[in-house]
Amino acid sequence: MNRLCRWLNSLKLAHIFSFLLVLGFVVHMAAVVLLRMHPTINFAEMEKIARSLAQHGTFANPFSMPTGPTAHHAPVYPLLLSLIFRAFGYGTAAAYAMAAMNISFAALQCALLPVLTEVAKVRRVVGVAAGLFGALVPFRIKREIRWETTLSALAIVVLALLTTRWWQTTRPSRSYTFFLGLAWGAGMLCCPPLLLVFLLLLLFFGVSAWKRKQPQWLLTVAIAALGMAVAVSPWTIRNYRALGGLVFVRSNFGIELDLSYHPGAHASFADNLSIGFPNNYYHQQHPWANNEVAEKVRQIGELEFNRQRRRRAIDWIRANPRDFAKLTLERVFFFWFMQPQSQPLKALLLVPWSLLAAAGLWRALRRRLALGSILLCLWIAYPFIYYFMQADARYHYPIDWTLALLAFYLLFGDPRTPTGGQEISEVSENLDRSLGG
Fold first, then answer.
1. What is the total count of domains within the chain?
2. Distance of CA 134 to CAs 24, 77, 151, 351, Å?
3. How many angstroms from the chain centroid is the CA of residue 279?
4. What single-letter DSSP state applies at residue 428?
5. How far apart are CA 202 and CA 338, in angstroms?
6. Which of 92, 199, 310, 389 is the 20 to 30 Å CA partner of 100?
7. Is 4 domain-assigned?
């Protein structure tokens, strides 16, 4: 192991990054071809918004009929998808371009893991092993080629990297702190659940800085929050003008809560979608599938429609507390360990893998690693909203990389071992100078 570590430390970090980037892209694209997946454009809400952007330049019409402006989806991924539609149309070429874009995000995610461990002062072998695992084992390839999950995962890796460096700085500069807040706000425009992660991180950082009697810690927290608010404000202002009310990134919580808690509800999205098709609750009550429901959205507006659906779901929850508890506990289990009926072997393998990662997180926290505190916040806050939504494997994908990183940290990591070279120091110094730190 020591010989391997010395060899990895002798390599340039840029070369490792480039190798993992190419390897991840080639392997994941090869999986698409060899498994004969044949990507297609399925026009659900996200794709319909992208089509509206491509054809009319409006963020609108996610449902079965035109309903006007929308905030049903976070804006970044539909915007990127609309560029593909403009360039390639809506057929096979566009589907493969979408798959290639998503796989590029996945490959970047793998390539950045050694950079993250370098910044976190963890042995380089941990990041390389996690990056190789992600590049060589595309076990969620079906989720990668269509959904926005790879973009969300990439955003979270980048934010973990930036936040680790910020957390480890004794006196983070105001400019870098503001930049970090901007980055988190941009991440929320890709993945809205990051709001809870960001707030918990600020709380953890504030308590830690207060205990260390770090000067001006409250100002530091306020500057980071201001940066986040600045990043999301253009989209918030647009939503207020277009929809007539305040919306933080997405407006669809009411719909999703109603589809998750109702008479005959199942814990998973797949069951709610397929059992009883086409006369099940999902297809009768979702405006994507039912013209009459979509017409109601058009008449009363997206925000009021979601308010009504949220009230209906809450009324059901109050009337059925046992069913609510059962569905929620099932979704907690499915989030971390998958639904065993759908893919029993994968679900079985995920149990020890997740437990190994949990042990790695415990070790990182005992060693007082900044990255350990950041990943703890991610594990606590990111999945919270999904515990109350129809379970689907794609919701876990953005933090899959943390399992690999923490599992390999348990096996190979030792923060007392020096990392490879002066490269990260030089990067940090250049970033400080560019941000005025």
1. 1
2. 7, 22, 15, 18
3. 32
4. H
5. 30
6. 389
7. no
